[in-house]
Structures are given as structure tokens and as C-alpha cells.
From TrEMBL, chain A:
Name of the protein this chain belongs to: Translation initiation factor eIF2B subunit gamma
Ranges for region Disordered: 142-162
GO MF, one annotated term: guanyl-nucleotide exchange factor activity
Similarity comment text for this entry: Belongs to the eIF-2B gamma/epsilon subunits family.
One GO location term (cellular component): eukaryotic translation initiation factor 2B complex
Record keyword Zinc present: no
Pfam families: LbH_EIF2B (PF25084), NTP_transferase (PF00483)
InterPro entries: eIF2B_gamma, LbH_EIF2B3/5, NTP_transferase_dom, Nucleotide-diphossugar_trans
Cell compartment(s), UniProt: Cytoplasm, Cytosol
Keywords for this protein: Cytoplasm, Initiation factor, Protein biosynthesis
Domain of life of the native organism: Eukaryota
TrEMBL record, chain B:
Region Disordered: start-end pairs: 1-136, 163-303
InterPro entries according to UniProt: IF-2B-related (IPR000649), IF_2B-like_C (IPR042529), NagB/RpiA_transferase-like (IPR037171)
Domain of life: Eukaryota
SUPFAM superfamilies for the chain: NagB/RpiA/CoA transferase-like
UniProt protein name: Translation initiation factor eIF2B subunit delta
Bias (Low complexity): 32-49, 163-174
Family (UniProt): Belongs to the eIF-2B alpha/beta/delta subunits family.
Bias (Polar residues): 95-113
Pfam families found in the cross-reference section: IF-2B
The organism of origin for this protein: Liquidambar formosana (Formosan gum)
Ranges annotated as biased composition (Basic and acidic residues): 1-15, 201-214, 266-297
PANTHER family, A to Z: NAGB_RPIA_COA TRANSFERASE-LIKE SUPERFAMILY PROTEIN, TRANSLATION INITIATION FACTOR EIF-2B
Amino acid sequence: MDFQVVVLAGGTSKNLVPLVSQEVPKALLPVANRPVLSYVLELLELSNLKDLIVVVEGQDAALRVGGWISGAYVDRLHVEVAAVPEDVGTADALRAIAHHLTANNILVVSGDLVCDVPPGAVAAAHRRHDAVVTAMLCSAPVSGPSESGPAGGKDKTKKPGRYNIIGLDPTKQFLLYIATGAEVEKDIRVQKSILRAVGQMEMRADLMDAHLYAFKRSVLQEVLDQKSTFQSLKQDVLPYLVRSQLRSEVLLNGTPQAEDNGNEKVASQNSQVVLSRLVANASTPSFHELYALGSNGSAPVRRTHKCCAYIASKTKYCVRLNSIQAFSDINRDVIGEASHLSGYSFSAHNNIIHPSAELGLKTTVGPHCMLGEGSQMGDKCSVKRSVIGRHCRIGSNVKVVNSVVMNHVTIGDGCSIQGSVICSNVQLQERVVLKDCQVGAGFVITAGCVYKGESLARK
Amino acid sequence: MDARRASRMVPDPKVRHVGFFTPGAPPDRAQSGPPESSSPPVSDMSPASNSLSPVMIPPPRHASEPLSSRPVAVPVMASPLRRPSNVDSVPVGSYNPSESLLGTSPVPSSSSRIGDRDGFSEESSGWFPRSSSGKFASSFPSGGFDLTAVKSGDFAAAAAAAASNSTAVSVAKKPAGVSSTEKGGGAVTAVQSELPSSKKPLKEKTTKAERRALQESQRAAKVFGKGSKAEGKKSALVSTGTALGKTVKQPSQKKDDTPLTSTAASDKKGGDRPTEKDRKKDVPPPRMQFDDKNRVDKAKRRAVVKQTEARNRVELFRHLPQYEHGTQLPDLELRFFQLDPMHPAVYKVGLQFLAGDIFGGNARCVAMLRAFQEAIKDYSTPPEKTLVRDLTAKISSYVSFLTECRPLSISMGNAIRVLKNRIAKLPLTLSESEAKSSLCSDIDRFINEKIVLADKVIVRYANTKIRDGDVLLTYGSSSLVEMILLYAHELGKQFRVVIVDSRPKLEGQALLRRLVEKGLSCTYTHINAASYIMHEVTRVFLGASSVLSNGTVYSRVGTACIAMVAHAFRVPVLICCEAYKFHERVQLDSICSNELGDPDAISKVPGRMDVNYLDNWANKENLQLLNLIYDATPSDYISMIITDYGMVPPTSVPVIVREYREHLWI
């Protein structure tokens, strides 16, 4: 279908410290005991997209990601892993791999996307409108811990529209305005020309840009070449394309050709004009075409391009792993409400306990829990809505609620862990109490400590 | 006015058509029914004319039959005339006129011809089930019967099998059993029971139906191993009378194992069975009857586009495809990347058809051809395959994909036929790149000659009919009419345009907008006001989706209404239509072949939230909404058809169709 896929897997994101480290780049963060990148790759594989380019920031990270991919997908996907220097924006990353891009359309996917919206839908919308860019929008996640008690309500009030402000046309197919919520201070500026051409614009703050874009390659490369200051797809390229859609500065492929033909053969062009008018008259014009024709139809044709949006339905799951909160949310959802994403089969109790895991006496593992391979739990433990990784050793009388415990973690007797993320190789000695904490890899917490809302990492 | 007067004389339709053609020219045979109705000779003839086609078809099952068949045939055919018994079983509600017309003797053969000539032959197959068994008995002994069986579902089929078993010994003596089966079929299908006027032909038919029943029974006996062999033989003897018909019919049925499946198969084959071999390849397969469960299921399994059938379909239109709107597009989008064999350009066009982004016969046709052109350009023959075959298969798969997105228009069907013809006729010596470029230029040429140039010519012609001071009425939005109006305006003619529009599409508004921009003085009204506005109109220009060979104009729904009102007001009706849209099929109504639109479109009034009486209508079982896309305007209401071959009366359409087929396309 003439699409090439680029997965931007990122490197070691600052937002996710202390979860990520040199050893564990963002792409390999475990979500329900699988690297987060695997969700994207499997989504693409499900759509029959098997030739991928994965772009990773940093050589080391690229090596690790490449190693993992070649191990896990050796005969299923054909993946090229490209390394770009650290701390470059998404636009720069694309610039770096520009010479690999050959297909007419490029699908750019963020590697931290966990969703079940088929990318085909975006590509189809893109193709149908012959758009320059199509962005997937999904409803902004309701963040916060799962206990939908007062805490959740508080969280909602706490965060103001920090996602996107998005303007759509009445048919909800075209993107008229986009801004990151964080950038918007008081007011937003909407171009009059767009507003005049469309007539009606719908501003939405409940949508989130899912970082899944379909670009027309020629346009994307042209923009990247010409605007060397553009750093990020989301903050520079996309708003630029949306802003300039009615006074297009990009050359759509095909336009120059038509002009050449016209000089050569007037007659053939004449019939072309007749035909194109025939087809145009018989198709529902988007406001772009109306605008391009001008008010009286005789004005010199103005160049426009289309920026489309595909809005994923509310029933679909679509979240980006770009914060620690999102990390625990996704972990919770993947074994909870969006369990079809995890690819595991759930037991009758609605949880996943690996057969090799050992449970002590009177230990309960509640629904929406996951217990990885080879983990051992002592007596009288209780696990609720948590993910516990492989080969963990958990003592007696331990409570784990709403938490993520990665691999090879040792937890002493009598610990209580709530709403926390504990990375690999951490050691918790007896009677540690953690609430809403993040513990970096290899950290050791001495017996009897109590932490609340802290981020603990090895210096 | 002259034009109208002249043509008004002409139509007087059914009889007129007869003389127009030599008996050899098949399409008009359908029309030729009544005048030639002196039955025996014709019935004799019809087997004879049929006997042309059996030549190409594998030998009949009973070796003895072919020889004995002819002599026996006449008496057997004659005998039924004496039996008035089961007339009442046959006729089906609203089809009486056509039946009485077709029912007279020569028709069977001609109807079969329709089937074969007919590119789509959907409507021929559409006819069979409705016109119950008897009518076509003489030409395909099993066809009609099977069809009733099909129509009335398994029950009737079973009943038929049973009944025919019982009558197997000698049918001539026991018509009752058969007639009862027929009644069974008729009762399910038919509403109206008696039709005295058409008694004779019907009688004849029923006996043929009996014979068919006989065959059916034989088959049943063989398959189920129930009936004794003696019976089978006897019945074979009796049925020799229909041997000729059988020779035509049976081979197709032989392939099927069980009678029940064979009913479905014969239904399908009824459409293209008599096809002459050379024609066969350019004839697209018959359109599916969507009230046939088996075949719908089968088609669904093959389908690219996932389709859920609409729930409240109108009973009379169940044979047409109709799906839940709103589910197809998302689903197709979801599987964007799975549809690997589909060329992107074709896929895009399909999406646009499905989403309604492109509409109008010409535009859809051009869009489709352009997509095919792209696909051909990117095509490369896989190893160990020949371009001709593989590319034809490819194109067919594209076509079926597009059909699933939206049923093809007749213009598209014709274009596809031409394209396939070109592919088939490619010299084998051509290299792949040469073949591809020749195909691409062929497509270009087709678009250029048949659409662009044709439009120009038609515009010229039509302009001779526009005078200063005219008030021209048009309906909907026809690209051709628009060109005509604009051209006349450019020439400086002083005229006024009345644009009549209708819900739900309101296509006329776009036309209005474009015309007003160009400075024409326009009046815009809705179809409800047609009779009010008509008295000031001097000419009616209408576009058409297709013109059929009996002069019927197949066009946007509402056209017939406008034409009739104009006729009543004695305003000439001029149909503008490119000749590539002509079709040799004959259609008498807009029921058997049509397209169903989204019923929601008529239940919702845009911009009026308060008009919500039909919300959730799908949940009400006793409410069905019908949103027809096309209708058929009888030729009586049409003064003139303006095509690229000149301005012709509707009666001349068959000539153009014939010439077009035989000389211009190949």
C-alpha cells in the first residue's frame, strides 16, 4: 500500500527517570512484563506492516533495542534499527534517516504508544483525502490511580488541559488548528482565512495527539529540508503544515508535472481540465478545494494542502507512555480493562500467574494482577492490581497494591507497597513501607524505612 | 416542440419496437412478444433458435433425447393449451403487464436472449424469480421451476421435490401435484392470484413447468436414490418434449450434485446460460439476488468489505444489496494494510465511492478508469503467468472490490467491458511494457472519445435546441446538462434555468451555485413544486445514468416524475446521455434493478434537530425506509435522446447499442 513505517523509539527520556536508565531505555520499559515497544511492533505486525525502521536515540540504547528486537522478532518482522545522537528532536531524527525513506507515504509512530487503533485507519483516511499529513487523535486519558474514589476526582481537577487544543472542521475530518496545551497561555490565535474558508470550527481540548502520523513523503522531506530549525514533529512540523494549509508552500507532487504538460500539448490539457472539472464537480468538495477555486472560480488557483485527522473511537485504547503516571496507568490498564493488548490469556480469576510462580500459604493474588515467571511469594501475602515481574522473591506478609514490580526484585517480610514502581534488582528489606514512590534499578532500601511520594535512585 | 410532437408519435412503444429489428437481433425480441403471438409456429421456432446455443453446450444427459426431441416437442407444447387448470398459480403481483406481454409464446427464447445479451443480466435473473415458474418454461425447463423453488425457500424446494416425485410416473395425467407445488411457490412469492387475460400463455407455461418438475423429480430420484428407475425412465420419455430446452439447461445443472444447490446454481446460470461463447467473456457475471441466502453467504465469505445487512429492508427490494451504512467504511479503513493485492489507487477510489466522495456516472467512471490506469502502470506479470490472463483476473478483483464499495453504474460496467476486451485482444507478441502502455493509451482514448469528446458533441447538438427566451428545467445535477447550459450561456443565448432538486442529496444546490457564479439566471425549487413550475418551462433537459434498449431512461430517482409532469404539460423532455452509457438490457420498471441508498439519509433532516420522529426507526420492525437511487422513465415520456451520435428518438436506442457493440468497440 505504499507506506513505510518509522517507529520513533526514543532514548532515555528524562520524564521517566528513575525508571529508565542506561540499561533500560524507554523502549524496553516493561509493561506487563513486555517491553513497551513490543506493543507498537505487534500493532504494526497485526496490520501486516513488516518492514519497519526503528529510530533510537543513542548508540547504546540502539544496540540494546536492536538486540532485543532481533531476538524477539527474528523471523516475523524485518526491522532496521537506526541510531541517532541523543537529545535530538523527532524532526531531526527523521532528517537523519531521510535517505532510507522511499515510499510515497510515511507512517510515523511513536514507540511509546500503547493502543489498539489499527494504523490502517489512519492510513486510509490519509489516502482517501490525499492529505499531506494525517494525525491520529484519541481521547485524552483520564489519568490518576485506579481507585476511582476521591483521589481520582482530585487529580482531574488538579491537571488543567495539558494535552492539546485541537480545531476541527464540522465533518471532523480536517485539522484546522493544533497546539500543545502546555504552550497555550491565555489565548490562542486562529487564522482568519481558515476560519473564513471553513465557516465553522470546533475547538476541542479533550483530544490528544497520539503521535501517529501519516505523512506524504515528498512534503515531509521538503519541510524538513527547508525549515532547518524545526525540531519536533509535533511542535513544529505539524502546526506548520496545519497553519499553512490554505497557502501551501510545499509542492505537491504532480502539480509541476501538469504545468509541463500544459506547455506541450494544449489540446490534451484542455481535455484534462474538462475532466478534472467533471470529477471535481461530482465530488463533495472539501473547503480546501472551494477555497482554492476562489470565490468566483476564475481566480488563479490557490495552492492548498490538506491536513486530516483521524479520531479514534472512544472504545479504543490509546495511551502514550510519556510519564511515570502514564507508566503505572498503562500497566494497570493492560492487565485490566485493556487486557486484550497484553496478549496473555487470563485465568478464571482474571489474573495471570505464571505456572512456575510459587505462592505461599494464604497468599492471595487478586484480579487484574500479573505474576511473572519464577517468582516466589511467602505466606499471607496479598497482591492487588499489580504487576510483578520475573524471578522476584517476596517474603511473607507483604502487601502490593497498584504497583509495578519489575524483575529480580527482593522484598523482605512485612513490606507494604502502594502505588509504586520498583525497578529491577531492587532490594527491599523488612517492613519497608512505600507509597507512591519510584525506586530506581539496583537500589537497596534498608529495613523499616517509610517513604511517601519519593523518587529513589542510586546515585 | 417539433421534436416532441414527432417523438410523441413514435413511442407507442411495444409494437413499434418490433419491426425495428430483424429477428436475428436479439434485444428487441423481448419487445416483440405480442405481435408475433400466434403461438405454435413460434414455439416451434424458439427451440430452433435455441438450438443454436445448445451446439456449444455439452451433450444432454439422456442420450436418446436429442434425436427424438424435436418431433415430440410440438405436440407437447401444444397440449398444454387445453389445460386451463393452474393458471392462478402463476402471476405475481405488480408484474402482470410484463408477464402478459412476455408470456406470449416467443418470449421464452427472447427472454433467454435478454439474459445472454444483457451485459449485466442481473435484471434478467431478477425477472425469473418474480415471474413465477410457468413463463419461461418453454425455454428453460428447469429454470423457472427452480427459481420458484429458490424464491420460496427451502420449504418450497422440498415440496417441489416431493411433488415431482409423486408426479414422476406421468405428469401429463397429474398436473395437480405440480400445480400445487407451483402454488406453493406462488403463494410465497405472489400476491395477486388471478390473471384471466393471460390465461393461454400461462396455461402453456404451467405444463412446461410440469415438465420441468418432472426433470426435477428425475434428478431428485437419482440423487436421493428414492424414485424407482422405471419411473425415472417414464418421466424421461415424457420429458423428451422439452429435450431441447433441457439440452440447454441440463449441462449446467449436471455439475451440481444436489437439486437444492442446483437451484441456486441454475439461478445464476439462468442469467448467462445462453451466452454465446464469444460474448461471454465481456459479460460481467449476473448480479446477485440478495434475497438468496446461500449465495449471499457465499459472497460474504469472499467479500473484501465487511458488510452487515440492513435489518429493515423493504420486502419488494430485498433482492438488491443493502447494508448497514456506517459500518463498512471504518471496517475497510481498519484493514487498510491487510488488503495487499489491492492497488492503492483502486483502494482510494473504492474508499471514495464508499464514503460518497465521488458520485455521478461520468465522474465515477473516470475515477475508476484512472485508478485502473495506475494499477496497470504498476503491474508486472508474475512469473509463469501470461499478462492477458493475470491482468484480467486482477482487474476483475478490483472490480469486485469496487462493487462491494458501491454497486457499479452501468457506465462503469460498459467501460470495464471495453477494458477487458482490450486486454483479451492484446496481441501475444507485445512485450509487457508495450502491452501496458497500449492499455493505458486505450483507457485514455476511451475517456477522451467516449466521455470528453462525446460531451462536446452533445453540447453542440443540444444547443441547437436552446433558443432565446427559453426556460430550461433540469433535475438534480448532471454534468452534461451543466456543460450544455454553460455553453449556451457563453454563446450569449438568453434563457433562464429552473433547477429542480430533491432530498436527500440536494445535488442541485451545487449545480445552482456553479451556474449562478457563471451569471446564469436560475430558479431553484424542489421536486414537490414540479407541477407548479412546469407551466412556465419550455424545455426539460435531463441527464441519465443509462439509456436502455427499449428506450427506458435509467436515471437519478425523480427523473421519471419530472418527465411525466413535463409530458402532461406538453413540454419536450430531452435526455442528454453519452452513448457509452447505453445498455442493451430491457427494463420495464425500476424495481428489478436499482440501488438502495442509506435509509438514514431520508429519515434525518439536516439542520432540523426537532424533526426526529424517525429516530431509532431501525428498531421498529414494521417500519421500513426505502431510499432508492435510480428510477426508470418509460420512453413514452421522452421526446428525444441527445447522444454523441445525434439526436434520436428513444426507439433508436437499440440501433446505437448494436452499432456501438459491433463496430465501434472492438
